[in-house]
């Protein structure tokens, strides 16, 4: 040990002048650096230096007046401590400064000041901890008695402290392990001493002198501690007495100080909290933990940050609905009526939900699958979830998972973190206050992943009926039974749901609505709801079905009804203004004006334009009730139509065909355009296409090239090799949206066939289907959404793969009646249906026959 403590410091040291205390060898000090000289030292020596030597500095106690810290170097104290800069922390607030953590190594004395600016550097001589010094057995012998005496006092002092504090226990061990000559310095820096006393110890270069000077300091500290312990005991008794007489004091109405009151209140609160914990119905495990925590809380001073944390935790534990639940009032017939009343259409979904509820009615502790509604936005997934809660008479809570990428969002943070809190599941339970709510996990397909873990993995535990009866939130740190919670999930697409999570759920597809369904939904649900929200009555506003259809076809293009709902809201707002204005005017009892107004109204009706709200306003009269919303009014309120049926216009040139695409937002029609130009047989594809789609394009070209002769397709120079001296460009509009999938195959073939034959594709036909190199048409997914999109766009015929015929059964009868379906099993059939008068094959076969 003695050899290990030998130190060799550089002979030149930069000097740090400190006002804040005296650093002694073997101790550590934190000092703030803000004088220009010291800042310069930190910057150029500590922050730029790379070697260990460069972090050794000389710390000199600055005995001059700190306020007179001017440019001139004050007279330096002769002896200082060489120190190792362990940490440098910079800050700009409230002014630029550094905080240095320095550990003292050994004493040195300044021999000569080498330079003063920008910071002082001196030639120094090391005074202790030198090799020859630490090995001097002689000196140890001489000092034997003195050092033994010192050691005894040191031990006595340390043992008077609370040994359960780890730092004290460590100090006790150090006393035995450290070389004796290091003890005076270390103990002086620990016990209560003035800077002046420390300075004297620093100046005591001879060890003997140092021991002699430190012993009185130790003795003083021991006496002080003894005195403190004596006074503390009766004080504790006093405390008890105070607690005991407190109730009396209240009765006697002796005014207490506010501080006392606060303390008393807090004490009462903790007692109340304990009472609540004991009477709450939490699990045994949780109760044990809570009682332990409350015991800790009682001992903790309130100023400790942990006090508030522990208290919050305990309050949450008490608030959680451990055993509190609502009683299910499930009656299937009533549930059916309620679901039908709340939602129009969605037969498949309602049927499955009723089945699910029926099983629950028969077997209460059902560990059934988690239902997951998958469909485009605005088709009523969330609102069905809400209806399920209503039918069961349960509380409803929605947990939005979109964008959640931290697993502690689901499972909470451990309480060791600052600002830790429980996850969304436990928070939700606290909000609803019962342990059997309906939790709607919204947008499970939009869960993210990040460095903070995978929230989907955390959800697995929540959703697994086998595991979730003892779900452990990191914050709670005890299991909470989630098995009574009814989880329902929603998503736009299953493609991005992690497979393990998907496996836990039963997927129920909720397709988009047909126009007729939307009209019904609007008139049965959306319009009455909007009227109520805007304080209007059917006597004040009338929206005929044709207007709704206009809104659906010309102002919205969506699978669900959300933007339809918004448009209806906009109409209601506009009408509300008119009605309010009207009411205001009606309150002015000007009969003549009203009479005149009646004339005007008649006049307007003759003009067949009473409906235009702006016109009504121009007349400065209360509008005629009910205000009829027709197409003119619609234009006034919503502006010019956003979507026009542009299908026939776009198909006025060869090289354009309509495909059908599926997106998470529902089906879409998609125009595929092709053009050709002189070139070297290159194919250019644009419109953000995925790999599969690019392959479809190559397949289509290859098939057409191999069948060019059969169909008499030639390029510009009349050659059957379609790519000979020709470049082809295929474009899929709405270039910002990534498109992928094989189902555009038939559309690309049709589009290219149109380009090379110069014939127009029929403007009322849309198509979907995957192709093979041999010209077969293979089935694809999303037929229902695609057909609905074609129907929305006003197309009349849809070409689908033969093997998708079965999917048509799911489509509403009225849509099926409006459309003609062409089932194609090969590309010949597709082309024949896509072109007026068919796309005849040249009878090469006949020719061959005659030869035979
Ligand atoms: P999602 O969760 O599918 O995105 P929402 O449940 O939020 O959609 O539905 C949007 C709005 O449309 C809600 O106000 C809902 O009441 C209404 N809605 C959707 N489908 C129907 C329906 N079939 N019948 C009645 N209202 C519906």
TrEMBL record:
Record's keyword terms, sorted: Acetylation, ATP-binding, Hydrolase, Nucleotide-binding, Peroxisome, Protease, Serine protease
Residue span(s) of domain Lon N-terminal? 13-222
Q: Which InterPro entries match?
A: AAA+_ATPase (IPR003593), ATPase_AAA_core (IPR003959), Lon_bac/euk-typ (IPR004815), Lon_lid (IPR054594), Lon_proteolytic (IPR008269), Lon_Prtase (IPR027065), Lon_prtase_N (IPR003111), Lon_prtase_N_sf (IPR046336)
Q: What class of enzyme is it?
A: hydrolase
- Claim: ATP-binding is one of the keywords in the record: yes
Primary residence: other
Positions contributing to ATP binding? 375-382
- Domain spans labelled Lon proteolytic: 651-837
List the Gene3D superfamilies hit by this protein, alphabetically: 1.10.8.60, 1.20.5.5270, 3.30.230.10, LON domain-like (2.30.130.40), P-loop containing nucleotide triphosphate hydrolases (3.40.50.300)
Complex formation? Interacts with PEX5. Interacts with TYSND1. May interact with enzymes involved in beta-oxidation of fatty acids, including ACOX1/AOX.
NCBIfam families in the record, alphabetically? Answer: lon
Protein name (Swiss-Prot/TrEMBL): Lon protease homolog
Q: Specify the taxonomic lineage.
A: Eukaryota, Metazoa, Chordata, Craniata, Vertebrata
């Amino acid at each position: 040990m003695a050899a290990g403590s030998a130190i060799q410091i550089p002979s030149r040291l930069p000097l740090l002048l400190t006002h804040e205390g005296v650093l002694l060898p073997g101790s550590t000090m934190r000092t703030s650096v803000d004088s220009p000289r010291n800042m310069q030292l930190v910057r150029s020596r500590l922050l730029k230096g790379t070697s260990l030597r460069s972090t050794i500095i000389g710390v000199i106690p600055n005995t001059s007046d700190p306020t007179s810290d001017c440019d001139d170097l004050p007279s330096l104290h002769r002896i200082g401590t060489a120190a190792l800069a362990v940490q440098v922390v910079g800050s700009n607030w409230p002014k630029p400064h550094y905080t240095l953590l320095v550990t003292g190594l050994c004493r040195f004395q300044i021999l000569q000041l080498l330079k003063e600016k920008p910071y002082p550097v001196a030639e120094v001589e090391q005074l202790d901890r030198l090799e020859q010094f630490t090995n001097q057995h002689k000196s140890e012998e001489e000092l034997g008695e003195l050092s033994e005496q010192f050691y005894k006092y040191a031990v006595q002092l340390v043992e008077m402290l609370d040994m359960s504090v780890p730092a004290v226990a460590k100090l006790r061990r150090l006393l035995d392990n450290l070389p004796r000559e290091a003890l005076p310095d270390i103990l002086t820096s620990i016990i209560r001493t003035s800077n002046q006393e420390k300075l004297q110890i620093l100046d005591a270069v001879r060890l003997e002198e140092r021991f002699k000077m430190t012993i009185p300091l130790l003795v003083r500290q021991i006496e002080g501690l003894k005195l403190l312990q004596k006074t503390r005991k009766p004080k504790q008794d006093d405390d008890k007495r105070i607690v005991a007489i407190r109730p009396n004091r209240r009765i006697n109405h002796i005014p207490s100080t506010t501080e006392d009151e606060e303390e008393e209140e807090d004490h009462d609160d903790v007692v109340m909290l304990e009472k609540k914990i004991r009477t709450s119905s939490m699990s045994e495990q949780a109760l044990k933990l809570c009682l332990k925590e409350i015991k800790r809380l009682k001992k903790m001073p309130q100023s400790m940050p942990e006090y508030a944390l522990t208290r919050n935790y305990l309050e949450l534990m008490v608030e959680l609905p451990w055993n509190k639940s609502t009683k299910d009032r499930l009656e299937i017939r009533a549930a059916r009526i309620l679901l039908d009343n709340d939602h129009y259409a969605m037969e498949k979904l309602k049927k499955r939900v009723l089945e699910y509820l029926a099983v629950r009615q028969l077997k209460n502790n059902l560990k059934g699958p988690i239902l997951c509604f998958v469909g485009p936005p605005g088709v009523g997934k969330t609102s069905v979830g809400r209806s399920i809660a209503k039918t069961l008479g349960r509380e409803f809570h929605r947990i939005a998972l979109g964008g959640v990428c931290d697993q502690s969002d689901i499972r909470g943070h451990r309480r060791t973190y600052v600002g830790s809190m429980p996850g969304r599941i436990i928070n939700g339970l606290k909000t609803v206050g019962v342990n059997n709510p309906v939790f709607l996990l919204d947008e499970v397909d939009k869960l993210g992943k990040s460095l903070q873990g995978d929230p989907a993995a955390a959800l697995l535990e929540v959703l697994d009926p086998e595991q979730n009866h003892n779900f452990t939130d990191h914050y709670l740190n005890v299991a909470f039974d989630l098995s009574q919670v009814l989880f329902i999930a929603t998503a736009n697409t299953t493609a991005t749901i992690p497979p393990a999570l998907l496996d836990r759920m039963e997927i129920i597809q909720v397709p988009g609505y047909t126009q007729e369904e939307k009209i019904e939904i609007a008139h049965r649900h959306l319009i009455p709801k909007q009227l109520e929200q805007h304080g209007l009555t059917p006597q004040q506003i009338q929206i005929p079905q044709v207007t709704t259809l206009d809104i659906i076809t010309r102002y919205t293009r969506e699978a669900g009804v959300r933007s339809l709902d918004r448009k209806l809201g906009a109409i209601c707002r506009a009408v509300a203004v008119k009605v309010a204005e009207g009411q205001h005017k009606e309150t002015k009892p000007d009969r003549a004006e009203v009479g005149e107004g009646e004339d005007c109204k008649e006049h307007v009706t003759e003009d067949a334009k009473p409906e235009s709200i702006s016109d009504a306003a121009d007349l400065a009269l209360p509008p005629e009730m009910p205000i009829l919303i027709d197409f003119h009014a619609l234009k006034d309120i919503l502006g010019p139509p956003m979507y026009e049926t542009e299908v026939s216009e776009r198909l006025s040139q060869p090289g354009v065909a309509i495909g059908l695409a599926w997106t998470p937002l529902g089906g879409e029609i998609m125009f595929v355009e092709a053009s050709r130009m002189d070139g070297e047989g290159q194919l250019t594809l644009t419109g953000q296409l995925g790999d599969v789609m690019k392959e479809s394009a190559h397949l289509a070209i290859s098939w057409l090239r191999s069948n060019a002769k059969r169909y008499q397709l030639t390029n510009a120079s009349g050659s059957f090799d379609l790519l000979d001296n020709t470049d082809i460009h295929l474009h899929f509009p709405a270039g910002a949206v990534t498109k992928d999938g094989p189902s555009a195959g038939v559309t690309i073939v049709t589009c290219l066939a149109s380009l090379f034959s110069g014939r127009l594709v029929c403007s009322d036909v849309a198509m979907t289907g995957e192709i093979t190199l041999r010209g077969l048409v293979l089935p694809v997914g999303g037929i229902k959404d695609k057909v609905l999109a074609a129907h929305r766009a006003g197309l009349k015929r849809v070409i689908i793969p033969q093997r998708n015929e079965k999917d048509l059964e799911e489509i509403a009868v009225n849509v099926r009646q409006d459309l003609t379906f062409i089932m194609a099993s090969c590309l010949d059939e597709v082309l024949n249906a896509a072109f007026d008068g068919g796309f005849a094959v040249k009878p090469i076969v006949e020719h061959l026959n005659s030869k035979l």
